[in-house]
Amino acid sequence: MTIHQRFTQSQVFLNLKGVNEMAVSQERKNEIIKDFARHDGDTGSTEVQVAVLTEEINQLNDHIRVHKKDYHSYRGLMKKIGHRRNLLAYLRKNDLQRYRELIQRLGLRR
InterPro entries this protein is in (predicted)? Predict the structure, then answer.
């Protein structure tokens, strides 16, 4: 085995070692965007942002249940919850009907 082959194998191992299991996969994110988009090409509406954040929050919540002392991830979870709260407050203030539909579709308490 040459040094180049060993180097290539170790690069593959190191790249796989750093894969983030807590992140929402791109396929799942695309499904959420498709489900909550208001029109074709809509990726930034409040509904889409809240739905993606909800998925990320649920995954982080599962991670923190297993890794109770992962305070770094806990802080990230709190930031995402705050961001979702602000987006929901904005939607509630500007369009109450869309807010209620979104809450019902996502199964959130409010």
Answer: Ribosomal_uS15, Ribosomal_uS15_bac-type, uS15_NS1_RNA-bd_sf
Q: How far apart are CA 32 and CA 65, in angstroms?
A: 24
Residue 50 · residue 33 · CB < 8 Å: no
| 65 is a domain residue | yes
Write the DSSP string, 37-51: -SSTT--SSHHHHHH
The parent domain of residue 36 ranges over 21-106
- The total domain count for the chain is 1
Does this model's pTM top 0.85? no
Say if 80 falls within a structural domain: yes
